[in-house]
Amino acid sequence: MQHQSFVKGDKVVYRNSANGGLNVSEKSSYKEVYGIAPDDVTLGGYIMNDDSIKFAEKTETDGDLLTYRFVLDGALAGNNAVRQMKEFGGLKDYQTFNSLMLYSTVKTDWTPVRLTVEGNYDISIAVLGLTVRTNSRRSFRTFKAALKFRQRKSSTQN
Q1: CB within 8 A of 120, min separation 6: which ones?
Q2: pTM confidence score
Q3: Distance between terminal CA atoms of the chain?
Q4: Could you give the CA distance from residue 37 to residue 78 in angstroms, rounded to a whole number?
Q5: Is there a contact between 74 and 119 (Cβ–Cβ < 8 Å)?
Q6: What is the widest separation between alpha-carbon atoms in the chain?
Q7: Judging by DSSP bridges, how do beta strands 11-16 and 112-125 pair with one another?
Q8: What is the pLDDT of residues 79-123, one digit of tens each?
Q9: Facing residues of 107 across strands?
Q10: 3-state SS string for 67-135
Q11: How far apart are CA 103 and CA 69, in angstroms?
């Protein structure tokens, strides 16, 4: 499903491919349904703010690469992820994070190089209760590369 949303003050205007029309909602109501507001800052899909970050530290310097570790409050940072897992993963209830850490590696000019997510959470599927460990890594290679866009033809109507 495609979803577009915009924020103006405490209101969110959004539309889904399912209904096509525009909807207006209070930001708090929108967050109850979708987990985050369009203007919430996320990294790797996790909410990053003063409330969700328990602590952060620089863990490594290797030449022009810096690695930072963010220890997150899973309930706050994973609010978007748990809603998506329940909706799209067929879970009976929301997952519960036991631990959640993000490692962000950047160049000294802050160009992103790599993002690693390590998490441990409990899920409930049908009658089963499982503990899941996840480790995902994303690498970024094309920053500052030239991008080519197709030129759209414009037309003028009189």
Answers
A1: 97, 98, 99, 100, 131, 132, 133, 134
A2: 0.65
A3: 36
A4: 13
A5: yes
A6: 65
A7: unpaired
A8: 777 777 776 667 888 888 899 999 999 999 888 899 999 999 888
A9: 65
A10: EEEEEECHHHHCHHHHHHHHHHHCCCCCCEEEEEEEEEEEECCCCEEEEEEEEEEEEEECCEEEEEEEE
A11: 5
Please give the single-letter amino acid code of residue 142: T
- Residue 9 backbone zone (phi > 0: left; psi -120 to 50: alpha; other: beta): left
Q: Any idea which residue has 């897992």 for tokens?
A: 85
3-state secondary structure of 30: helix
152 has a pLDDT exceeding 60: no
Tokens 């519960």: give the residue: 96
DSSP 143: T
Helix (H, G, I), strand (E, B) or coil at 16: strand
Question: Distance (Å, rounded) from C-alpha 140 to C-alpha 69?
Answer: 18
Q: Which residue has the tokens 């959470």?
A: 121
- Interhelix angle for 79-89 vs 27-34, to 10°? 50
Q: Could you tell me how many residues make up the chain?
A: 158
CA 32, 54, 66: angle at the middle one, nearest 5? 115
- Return the residue matching tokens 């029309």: 21
Asked if residue 58 lies in contact with residue 66, where contact means CB atoms within 8 angstroms, the answer is yes
